[in-house]
Each structure stands twice: as C-alpha cells, then as structure tokens.
Amino acid sequence: MADEQVLEARAEEAAASASVHLDPAMAEGNALTQGLEPEHASSPATMLAHSVPDTTVVFGRVIPANIYVVVFGALAILTIIEVILAEILPESVFFRTPLLVVMSLAKAVLVMLYYMHLKEDNKLFAAAIILPLLIGVVSCMFLLAVPSTGYGPGR
Amino acid sequence: MATISAPLPGIQVSEEGKLRIGDYLKWSVDHKIIGVQYAVTALFFFIIGGALAMAIRWELLTPALDVAADGTAYNQFFTMHGTVMIFLWIIPMMAGFGNYLVPLMLGAKDMAFPWLNAFAFWLIPPAGVLMILGYFAGQAQAGWTAYPPLSTMFSDGDGQTMWAIAIHLLGASSILGALNFIVTIRNMRPEGMGYFQMPLFVWAMLATSIIIVMATPFLAGGLTLLILDRVAGTAFFNPAQGGDVLLWQNVFWFYSHPAVYIMVLPGFGMLSEVLSVHARKNVFGYRAIALSSMAIALVGFTVWAHHMFTSLTPSLRIPFMVTSMIIAVPTGIKIFSWIGTIWGGKIRFNSAMLFGLGFLSMFVIGGISGVMLAAVPFDLHVHDTYFVVSHFHFVLYGGSVLAIYAGIYHWWPKVTGTLLNESMGKWHFWLTYVSFFFTFFPMHLLGMLGMPRRVAVYAPEFQTLNSIVSFASFVLGISTFILLYNMVYSLIKRKQAGPNPWRALTLEWATSSPPPAHNFHGDPVPYKNPYGYGTEAAYRYLEAQEAELGKSWPNLEEEPARALKPSSSPAGD
Amino acid sequence: MTEVSLEKSHGHSAADAHAKHEALRVENFKLGWWLYLASEVVLFTVLIATFVVFRIDHPEVVKEVHEKAGVLLVALNTFILLTSSWAMVMGLREIQRGNVSGLVRWIGLTAVMGTIFLLLQWVEYNTLGAEGITLQSGQFGMRFYAPTAFHGVHVLIGVIWAVWVMWRARNGKYSSTNYLGVEVFGLYWHFVDVVWIVLFTLIYLV
Questions:
Q1: pLDDT at residue A153 above 50?
Q2: A128 in contact with C at a CB cutoff of 8 Å?
C-alpha cells in the first residue's frame, strides 16, 4: 500500500533524525523515494563532521533558509500592490475585484505551500484543506445566487 | 443436551477485561469504555426522547388540546423530541458503536487520540443537561430546525439560547470524534489490511466522519450567528434590520442534510456486517458498498436546498431536484448489494438478523418516499405535512434505530461477554416491527390528506388515522422496554458468550469477550477478506482462532448443528 | 489456499518499531490537526459569506465605510501579521537545526507581533465605534465585527499558545528530533494568517 510506504519512509526519517541534514551530497537525494541509510545519516560522526550549512531538510527535501525570506518578501510586495490597486482603481473597473481576490488567494497559497510546508508534506493534508475550501466556495456561490431577502422584485 | 460445565481454556475473561460499573462513571481513555459510555448516555436520552414522543402522540389522540397546556407547550414537546432524538440519541449512539468497534476491527489497541476521544464524549452529558435545564428558563420551542424568526423574535425564554449552546457543544464533540476516526482509520490499519480489506462498518464510519468534519462547522457558524442575534443584539436573521432570514435555512441545511447521512451511514455499515455474518455469505459488491458510502457523503453536500423548495428561487428548484434524485442511486446500489448478500445465504434468523432485515425493508419505504419528496411538484403539495414526518421517521427509525437494534443484538456478546435472550429479542423485533409500521405508515396518508405537522389541534376528520398512529406508537414505546429488560436480564444471568459466537471473520471477534484492556492477546492477523465466509480457508482460519481463544459457543445447545458436527459442512462457515 | 496462520511474521527490529511508532504519532497529530483546520475553514466560511453576500448586494454601504475608515491602519496590521508568520516559520527552522534559544527568540517575536495586531485591532474598533459603527448598528456592523472579532479571538489564543511554546522550549521540551509541538502551533498560526489574508482583501479592499 502506498500509505504504508509513506509511513515507512517517515519512520526512516525519524530514525535518521531528518530534521537537520548536514551532508550536502546526501541532501541532493530525495529521502522519500530513495530511502536513507539510517546508520549513515544518524551517526553522530557525520553530524559533527561538517560545518552547518544554512539549510534544513523537511520531509526529505532541502529547504534553504532564504526561501522563507523570499516568500515573506513576495507576500509583502503583493500586499503593497494590493493596497495600492485597491486605492487607485475605481470601483467601476470590472477586473478590480477578481484581481484583488486572485492576489489574496495567491498569498494564501504561498503561505500554505511554504510556511505550512504543504509543498513537501503529505498530499493528504492538502486534500484535507482543499475539500472544505471547495465546499465553502460552492456554498458562498449559492448564497450569492439566492437573493438575500427572499425573491421577486425589489431584492 | 449435554452442557459442558468444566471451564474451557481461554474463554475466561481475564482480570483486566472484567466489567466494573465504576470504570464507566469516570474519565477513561479506553475506547471500549468510552464506546459504552456513549451508548449508555444515548440510551438514557433515547428514553427521554421516547417519553416526549409518547406525550406528543397522547396529545394527538384527539383533535382537541388535552395533554399540553397550550400550543407553546406542545411546541416544546416536539422541539425537544426532535433535538434529543437526533443530537443526543442517534448521533452519539453511532459514535458509540464507532468508538467501540473501529479500533477493534482495525486490530488496533486504541483510537489515534485517546484523550481527545474521552474529551469528545464528556462534552455530551453537560450539553444534554444544559438543553434539558432549558425547561426552567422557557424551553426551546422553535422546532429542531430552529428557523428564525421562530427562534429569535418568537422565543422569549433563555431556553432557546441554552439549546443553541448545547447544540454547539454537541457539534464540537462530534467534530473531535470524527477527526479521531479519520486519523485512526487512515493510519492505524494493521499490516495486510488495505483500504479495501477494511470491514464495511469502518468504511461507513470513514464516510460519516468526513461529512462530520466538513459539515458540522456550518451549523457551528449558523449557531454562532443565532446566539449573537439572541444575546448581542445583532440582526443577522432579521430582515427588518438588514438581516437575511433565509441565511439560517441555507446554513442549517448545509449541515443538516449531510447530517441525515451522518445518522444513517453507520447504520448502513452495521447492516453490511450483520447481513453478511448471519447469512454466512460474502458481501455482494464489497467495493460498490464501500464506494457508494463515499459517493453519498460527497453528493450529500449538494442537495440541501430540497428542504427549502417552497422558499427557494424557482430557477434553482430543478438542479436541486436532480441532485436529490441522484443520491438515490448510490443508496439503491447498497440496497441491491444487500439483497444480493442474503440471496442464497444460509440465513440464521436470530434477533440481529431480523432487525437487519427489518431495516432493509423499512428503509426502502423511507428511501422511496424520499425520492417522492425530491420531486418538486409533489413536495410543494406535501411540504410541512405529515408526509414529511412519515418519511423521516421511516429513514431515522426504520433506518438508523432498527440498525442500532441490529447492532446491539449483534455486538452485545462482544461488549459484555454475555448473550441476550433470543426469544425476548424476537418478541422485541416483531412488536417493534409491526407497531413501527402502523405508527408511521398512516402518517403518509395523513400528509396526503393535508394534515400539517407541528400542530396540537387538528381537523376532526383526521381522528381515526391519528388514533391508529397513537395506539401503535404506544405499543412501539412499550416494546423498547423489552430490549432494556433483556439487557439487564442478560447482565444478571450472565449466560456466557464465547469470543466469537457468530463465527465472524472481522477482527473484533478475534479476541476474548469482552476484550482485554489492550484489545488483543498479541497482534491479531486479519483474514484476507473480512467477509470470505463459505470457503475452506475461512473455516480453517476460524478453527485456528478457536484453538487459540476457546470455543465460539460455550453453550452447546445454542447452535447444536454446528457444535455437534463441526466438520460436516465447512462450506457453511 | 488453506494454510492459515494466526502468527505474524516479525521482520522488524525493536528500534525500527520505535521509530515507526514515533513517526505514526507525528503523522497522527498532523493529520488530526489539518482536519481540525479544515473544519475551521468551514466555520470561517459561514462568517465571511455573510459579509460577502452583503458586499455584493449593497456595495454602496461598504464603499461609504471604506472611505470613512481608510485602509492604512489595517494594512499596517496585515504587515504585522505577515511578519509574525515569517517569524514563526524561522522559529520552526531554528528548532529543526537544534537551536532552542533561536526558537525562543523568533517565537517571542511572533507573540509580540500578535499582541500588537490585537492592540491595533482594538484601536481600529474604537475608531469605528466612534464613527457609529457597532455590532448593533445594523447591516454593516454585525457583518464586519463577527468575522474580524472571531479572527481576533483566534489570534489571542495563538498568542497565549506562543507563550506556552516558549515556556516549554525554555524547559527543554523541544529538540531537533522532537519539535511536533512547535510545528503544530506553526500550522495554527499560519492558518490564522491565511484567514487574515483573505479577510483583509474581502472586507477591507474589495
């Protein structure tokens, strides 16, 4: 079963203390698919042998520190653009609302992918969060379709 | 008939597995104890809800107002009856079965989050008490659906607020329980058990839990707004101050239609177990049954507005009619699969099986009247009449409650280690089955004739049918006590059940009854097909299990044919 | 196939079993937590939907409030929350590298940012209240305060949780191999951030 395999891979990771990965050569490989050799990765000698590079390994993938800074920068810039657009675009421009919503969704996706590690983590978590979002969006759409105080003229 | 009085090796309940009443009255993280706590709490509320139902039927015996002091009192009766039965009986009872059985069926030692499990249970008693205490503050009287403005402008007492808070707590409890189930089912299956080797009850609990996690927060959101409207002076549901009265109906049915499946899907799961075990036959269409649960769970989210055909924008009626009818398809797949399962089986007509068959027959009626109601022209005609009352009682009583009864008779030996009395069980079944039919079937006719629901005083021409309904309902009420008596009787008599009295293949039977503290003696090995009855391999598996745990039937006279000639017909096992 | 055995084939060593158990615990917690967040998504959806429907039906009321209140204060607040989220993930990174004091410092920044956010929200509520927009003031007020205050409560819980994580970190409860508590708190905090990102656009900008 695929799940068991994933679990096994996780187990190996835990055994290999995958959080700090100090061997760049090993780090190139994908622990999830290739499998780590626990003795090698967890031996204290290897741990201390190299100076600490500025990366962490999460779920078998190398994450350079500056990715977090880059994402933060992107979020900040997007927010500034959003605020400016909201101020300068007149209400009448048809793409104003869709554009702003898309930008905010892009920010939300950035946070979820990089800060919440959905990019590396179990895809099931992504499914768990996308399903209610879909249900929520559909229900919102429906509420929009139903006139808020009944139907007929003068809604 | 010779009875073996000497103790057989392996059948004694080990010390740690012994039932002590005190263990059930305090905080415990053992899923088996929590399961029983859920079930007993739910049964307690079932009696309360049943008493309210009796009061309602007594009131409706005559067209005039006689039991209830006034219309408001009657409104309180049916409001509390509906709420207690749905939120404090069926849903917790299903959670109880799930708690007890899911880890056992998966061969696990406990749920994924034992502490959270206990916490979810302990939210229920305070919520139930809070709801009932509302009686002293002006009981809730807006119906279990609590439509504004009934639940806002026309409910002065604080009972309605207490009702909303109680439902909030119950919703939180069921969300916490459900995410526990999902994690348990996904991560704690034993080696050799993939998703498609899981027992169908586990599949049903998985589908139910997904619905709970995705749908219950809608209710929580709606209740938050309702409570704000009632205590903080907002006007979310008051059009006069810029609110929106339909918002509640939408949000409520976003939750409550999926909640119908929350109440009935575990029953479907139990039925699959009961039918297959007692027909000694492989489940027909395992994948179809498993996946149709998921289909019901997903399609269930797209049908809510069929509860609102009379208040809905006309252009949306047809789409919702179509989705509502689509949901009959996976349900039909299940029904026919179950018929295929019992077809040609070596059926044991014991109480569990009888209730299973009762479910199958009555649920079909409820399902078909559901399809009738999904048709817009018909629904507009019978909306808010007794036809609707009849429909959902066929689904919830004929479906969920009969399934719960089947489940009780089926798993009682596992939970307590004792056997229920079969002849009392059969009396219970026949009285329930017949009186159930005569309680709820005439309501279809009342509805077609135009009797509205939720009225204490009705037109005199409805009296004959109403009297039939009421008398049948009194019999139905009394028949419940046979079960309660049977339970107490069995606990006192302690007629011992073996580890696997039904010779079933699912893992909950692969341990002693009741199971020891950590469920299994060693790691259980699942049989490759949980319903592979009638094969020689299954027979050998059960033999090996018997050799390890002791005889399935310590009392030989219970199933003499099998006990006296164990190897004459291996195909039967 | 008639050979049936109730014995399990044991191919794993005890150390493997322990690692597997630990991995299972982590996996369980994270899946459970994501499912909880999923239910929160739906809960927030209900509250946000009430605003969005109103926004579409009565654009003029919302526009009027926007013009009165301005967007500067709340844009600043958004920055503060984004920063706190960044601090959170940096803290997680520190503990993944085994640096406990780094964790405490970054999470401390998260907690401070969260507190400032709450204070500024309080200021904003007071400003709006002075302009006559309150919970009971009708159409706009209730639909504005319900989701934002509900989010504010989440931030408050997050700040308290952050302090608790710092306290536990000081007591040496986390290490480079055991940081589940930090990770789960991180998921919560980022979720609160994501909700704000959406709320900010839908309520203040659009």
A1: no
A2: yes
CATH of domain C25-205: 1.20.120.80
Identify the closest residue of chain B to C34 by CA–CA distance.
B179
Q: Is residue B149 reached through a cis peptide bond, with omega within 30 degrees of 0 on the bond before it?
A: yes
Q: Rounded to a whole number, what is the distance in Å from the CA of B183 to chain C's nearest CA? A: 6
Peptide bond into B560 cis (omega under 30): no
Subunits next to B (3 or more Cβ pairs <8 Å) are: A, C
* Per-residue pLDDT tens digits for C187-199: 999 999 999 999 9
Closest CA to B177 of A3, C35, C37: C35
Partner-chain residue, chosen from A4, A7, A146, that has the shortest CB–CB distance to B246: A146
Do strands A55-58 and A61-64 pair parallel, antiparallel, or not at all (unpaired)?
antiparallel
In CATH, the number for domain B30-572 is 1.20.210.10
pTM comes to 0.88
- CB contact under 8 Å between A139 and B254, yes or no, is yes
| Mean per-residue pLDDT, A6-10 | 49
Q: How far is C26 from chain B (nearest CA, A)?
A: 11
Do the chains contact at C197 and A111, CB–CB below 8 Å?
A: yes
Which of A3, A7, A146 has the CB atom closest to B250's CB atom? Answer: A146
The answer to whether C52 touches A147, Cβ cutoff 8 Å, is: no
Greatest distance between any 2 Cα atoms in chain C: 82
- Beta carbons of A135 and B312 less than 8 Å apart: no
Task: Report domain extents, chain C.
Answer: 25-205
> Tens place of pLDDT for every residue, chain C, 206 residues?
344 555 554 545 667 777 888 888 888 999 999 999 999 999 999 999 888 888 888 888 888 888 887 888 999 999 999 999 999 999 998 998 888 999 999 999 999 999 999 999 999 999 999 988 888 887 888 999 999 999 999 999 999 999 999 999 999 899 988 899 999 999 999 999 999 999 999 999 88
Residue A118's Cα: distance from chain center in Å?
4
pLDDT of residue A32: 38
Cβ-Cβ contacts under 8 Å, B536 against chain C:
2
Which of C2, C38, C146 is facing B536, going by the closest CB pair?
A: C2
DSSP string computed for B453-516? SS-SS--GGGHHHHHHHHHHHHHHHHHHHHHHHHHHHHHHH--B--S-TT---SGGGSS-SS--
Mutate to test the interface with B, among C6, C53, C195 (most CBs of B within 10 A): C6
Interchain pair B313, A145: CB under 8 A: yes
- Report pLDDT digits (tens) over A116-127: 988 888 888 988
CB contacts of A129 in chain C (<8 Å) are: 34, 37-38, 41
B128-167 confidence digits (pLDDT tens): 999 999 999 989 999 999 999 899 988 888 999 999 999 9
Q: Is the pLDDT of residue B56 over 70?
A: yes
pLDDT digits (tens, 9 = 90+) for A126-148: 888 888 888 888 777 777 666 55
